[in-house]
From TrEMBL:
<dbReference type="InterPro" id="IPR020556">
    <property type="entry name" value="Amidase_CS"/>
</dbReference>
<dbReference type="Pfam" id="PF01425">
    <property type="entry name" value="Amidase"/>
</dbReference>
<dbReference type="InterPro" id="IPR023631">
    <property type="entry name" value="Amidase_dom"/>
</dbReference>
<protein>
    <submittedName>
        <fullName>Amidase</fullName>
        <ecNumber>3.5.1.4</ecNumber>
    </submittedName>
</protein>
<keyword id="KW-0378">Hydrolase</keyword>
<dbReference type="GO" id="GO:0004040">
    <property type="term" value="F:amidase activity"/>
</dbReference>
<dbReference type="InterPro" id="IPR052739">
    <property type="entry name" value="FAAH2"/>
</dbReference>
<dbReference type="GO" id="GO:0012505">
    <property type="term" value="C:endomembrane system"/>
</dbReference>
<feature type="domain" description="Amidase">
    <location>
        <begin position="24"/>
        <end position="464"/>
    </location>
</feature>
<dbReference type="InterPro" id="IPR036928">
    <property type="entry name" value="AS_sf"/>
</dbReference>
Length: 483
């Protein structure tokens, strides 16, 4: 496999200079998929004929003098996005034959920007796992170690990018689904501020594709460089034209700083509810050292930081409150009985998961009030800091674990076993209050696996963590292709 792959920015420059055509780039990307994807299984729905036609159209448009942000750039799309004429299953066998009639709003924006869509990338069942496998399309392997997961739920997109299958991809994030696969596969991803990116058409089949405003979930970009993340976010960002877009126009504020030495950063490598593995702590340390060497103000603690333990419990309740909406009445009543038996002093994550699954609307309002207090705390925090550097999960990519009882699964953190879903506490730090977070490569574990960290920024100031990611890429390096 090649030692590196060009970025979207580099491909765009080559296309503008006439050094290559979109048809050539598309054929090259397809050939790479046909050579390498049998071992990775990232591309679950290829669309090569239409991609080649789109590439020829892009070349003709460029010959006419057109120049759009992604004109002629080969990309992939997470399977959960509707693309007219291609199946959208979310990995659920009951919907293996569902074909949407129109493109998701983000697919429409990719095409309007000139992108060439090569196909769709694999997902876990219902997008509800930290791994990527399902009965329809099988298992996606980590390009660095095929015995390990590529992450989830945007694991197919991350594996595709790490393997050179297209220059960009779009995914989504509710529980780290952009950031965790980026961390596991050694690429970049950005979880936008909640509400920044329209998500109509990324809906469980069979739809309908309504302009729903989600509580936690976002759509976002994935790439092999920090600058490419910004390029793709600028295409994706903005309200749905069916709703807020009728009245509002998006203008993101610029990054707070352009130089590394001007940033004020809080570095965290331990969570009060879960230990951080040594490989991930080392990755956080490498980033902290680079920040300090570049002259940034680096702190290791602050009384302004909203309580991470309380944040994890709140996030867990929100996350699991939506997981039982379609449970049979009998099963739901059993959960209610179990939750009623919890002790009032039980503030564990297991208890939060159970309480979240039976949260009444009245209780949800109370939990939401606590979230608003956290959001206000973050506003005060970001008056003194520009970003938080912290883990995405406590470990690098772990071996495939297909135990159907998700609650029985365990993750190994330096030889000790912990509940599988506890690893989501770091993802929830940004997701619960709706903050933007950029996943960046931060080196390798002793076993040679990628390690990433996330840069959390102020709400609707997405360009600040993205700019910090770009500066760090210069200091510590960025994506490297698996050997």
């Amino acid at each position: 496999m090649e030692q590196n792959f060009p970025t979207a920015e580099q491909l765009a420059a080559s296309l503008r200079a006439g050094e290559v055509t979109s048809a050539e780039l598309t054929d090259e990307a397809i050939a790479r998929m046909e050579r390498g994807d049998d071992a990775i299984n990232a591309i679950c729905v290829p669309d090569f004929d239409r991609a080649r036609a789109a590439a020829r159209d892009a070349d003709r448009a460029r010959a006419r003098g057109e120049d759009r942000p992604l004109l002629g750039i080969p990309v992939t799309v997470k399977e959960s996005y509707d693309i007219a004429g291609l199946p959208t299953t979310w990995g659920m066998p009951a919907h293996r034959d569902y074909l949407p009639a129109e493109d998701a709003v983000q697919v429409s924006r990719l095409k309007a920007a000139g992108a060439v869509v090569l196909g769709k990338t694999n997902v876990p069942v219902g997008l509800q796992d930290v791994q990527t496998f399902n009965e329809i399309y099988g298992t996606t392997n980590n390009p660095w170690d095929h015995r390990r997961t590529s992450g989830g739920s945007s694991g197919g997109s991350a594996a595709a990018l790490a393997s050179g299958f297209g220059a960009l991809s779009i995914g989504s994030d509710l529980a780290g689904s952009l950031r965790t696969p980026a961390h596991f596969c050694g690429i970049y991803a950005h979880k936008p501020t909640l509400g920044l990116v329209a998500s109509r058409g990324m809906v469980p089949p069979p739809g309908p594709a309504l302009p729903v405003e989600h509580d936690l979930a976002v759509a976002g970009p994935m790439a092999r460089s920090a600058r490419d993340l910004t390029l793709l976010l600028d295409v994706m960002a903005g309200p749905d034209p069916l709703t807020l877009g009728a009245a509002y126009h998006l203008t993101l504020p610029p990054a707070r700083h352009e130089r590394l030495r001007d940033f004020r950063v809080l570095v965290l490598d331990e969570h009060p509810l879960l230990p951080t593995g040594s490989a991930v702590r080392a990755g956080v340390g490498r980033v902290a050292d680079a920040l300090a060497a570049g002259g940034a103000r680096v702190e290791r603690d602050s009384p302004l930081l909203p309580d991470p333990a309380e944040a994890a419990v709140l996030y867990t309740k929100f996350l699991f409150s939506g997981s039982v909406a379609h449970f049979p009445v009998e099963a739901y009543e059993q959960l209610q009985a179990r939750a009623a038996g919890l002790g009032a002093d039980d503030q564990s994550l297991d208890a939060a998961r159970l309480r979240g699954m039976v949260l009444s609307h009245r209780d949800w309002i109370a939990v939401n009030g606590s979230r608003e207090l956290h959001r206000h705390g973050w506003r005060r925090f970001f008056a003194e800091f520009d970003a938080v550097v912290c883990p995405i999960t406590p470990t690098p990519a772990f071996p495939h674990d297909h135990d159907p009882d998700l609650m029985a699964r365990r993750i190994d953190i330096d030889g000790a076993a912990y509940p599988y879903f506890d690893q989501l506490v770091w993802a929830g730090l940004a997701t619960m209050p709706g903050l933007p977070a950029t996943a960046v490569p931060a080196g390798r574990s002793p076993e040679g696996l990628p390690v990433g960290v996330q840069l959390i920024g102020p709400m609707f100031e997405d360009r600040t963590p993205l700019r910090l990611a770009e500066l760090l890429e210069r200091e510590i390096g960025g994506f490297q292709a698996p050997k």
